[in-house]
Amino acid sequence: MVPFAGWEMPVQYEGVIPEHRAVRTDSGVFDVSHMGELEVEGPKAHDFLQGVLSNDLDRIEPGAAQYTLLTNERGGIVDDLIAYRLEAGRYLLIVNASNREADFRWLKDRELPGSDVRDISDEFALLAVQGPRSLERLGLEEAPAFTFSEEEIDGIECMVNRTGYTGERGVELLVPAEEGPALWDQVLARGVKPAGLGARDTLRLEVCYPLHGNDIGPDTDAISAGLGWVCALDKDFTGADELRRIKADGPARRLVAFEMDESGIPRQGMAIEGGGEVTSGTHSPMLDKGIGMGYVPAEQAEPGTEVTIDVRGRARRARVVKKPIYKREED
Amino acid sequence: MAAPESYPDDLLYHPEHDWARIEDGEAVLGITWYAQDALGELVHFEPPEQGATVAKDGIYGEVESVKAVSDLISPLSGEVLAVNQKVVEAPETVNGETYGEGWLIRIRLADPSETESLLDAEAYKALLADQ
């Protein structure tokens, strides 16, 4: 167990690699109850969120969800989150644990009359069940990604969200906190393997989902981070002007994915020759080699570009690759 | 894959969780069961060059799991005669065959009397019990 954002979190159960493989080939469950839940309600909730979130909530109907960013005036990323459109005038935001309080304050400070933000994180447990066999294990039907519904699993009422952080088919189950332990036991009883923070990191990195605090943050703008696709630059939101300018000028550096062509495992903070830096790195269990993401000058960002990473004093060759690094075979 | 905990009696141990098997003025080196268990499944072994000199208590390479990297501390001084290529290619060998196929390097001892400073299995186990 390790401390993480005020929580005691399991890094691994059986081991990072077997847990990773379980999620890629069958199913695994992560207790992500540490994540924050903020509810935004009121006749002005929609207008308020449209002004602070980068993506366009008008693109989704009630019953759907959207990956989006909370941006600052510089176009930097206060947090990345998923917004769930519950009903007219009511939204749920699921945010990173380490940013829960910062997000809440950020939103409170900007609230419009007719919108109310509440931190309801302590009321909920959240279990992410992920993997090609996850739905079958849970007895759930297929549904489009980024939708949600109320369903009962072994007698426990869950908000079933078709979302995740692994690149696999799967769900995230939101339940009242007191139901969390029973749901965890039921999910395990259905043959899903417990998985920890270690596998969560290797899984998300193989599919190039950014980790806030590593790959993105208040000082990295959304365009350079490759998140322009969640920025609706045709609407007005905090930092939109700056993001339009960066997009028009072309960013000076870009967040890229890379694979090692030589042995060695890239890690956060290692220098990439030419002025870049590794923001996340690990050993990919599926590719059996070092992989990572990092910022490089724009001229080095094209897939296929060879780069050199300083692995604790040793110059090791790597190659910029298209995201995601790992792709499911059936895709 | 994981082997049960063991610390063979015929080996000498360094407090930094390395073992040495002494054979006619040479030594085979590796990491202990405790070290491989703490790291988890190994995914990388950064070996020294053959012919390089290693110093007692000095760093001669690195082993790495998904979650952590660890320096390899040489229990003895000498010249590197061989690197275990099997572990370079399949680092997880160390987890399953810690004291056999999972050896890391073989050295020619510069000063055989250095072995007197190392721990026997009982002393090493006592050290682990205190941690």
Structural topology:
The complex is a heterodimer of chains A (331) and B (131).
Chain A: E1 2-4, E2 7-9, H1 16-25, E3 28-31, E4 36-41, H2 45-52, E5 65-71, E6 77-87, E7 90-95, H3 100-110, E8 116-119, E9 124-130, H4 134-138, E10 148-153, E11 156-161, E12 170-176, H5 180-189, E13 193-194, H6 197-206, H7 240-249, E14 253-260, E15 271-272, E16 276-284, E17 289-297, E18 306-311, E19 314-321
Parallel strand pairs in A: 3-13
Antiparallel strand pairs in A: 1-2, 3-9, 4-7, 4-8, 5-6, 6-7, 9-12, 10-11, 11-12, 14-17, 14-19, 15-16, 16-17, 18-19
Helix pairs in contact in A: 1-6
Chain B: E1 12-14, E2 18-23, E3 26-31, H1 33-39, E4 42-46, E5 53-54, E6 59-65, E7 69-73, E8 78-83, H2 85-89, H3 93-96, E9 105-109, H4 121-129
Antiparallel strand pairs in B: 1-2, 2-3, 3-9, 4-6, 5-8, 6-7, 8-9
Please explain how this structure is put together.
The complex is a heterodimer of chains A (331) and B (131). Chain A has 331 residues and is of the alpha+beta class. Chain A contains seven helices and 19 strands. Chain A has two domains: 251 residues, 2-Layer Sandwich (Gyrase A, domain 2), CATH 3.30.1360.120; 80 residues, Elongation Factor Tu (Ef-tu), domain 3, CATH 2.40.30.110. In chain A, strands 10-11-12-9-3-13 form a six-stranded mixed β-sheet. Chain B is α+β, with helices and mostly antiparallel strands. Helices cover 19% and strands 34% of the residues of chain B. The mean pLDDT of chain B is 96. Chains A and B meet through loops of A and strand 4 and strand 6 of B.
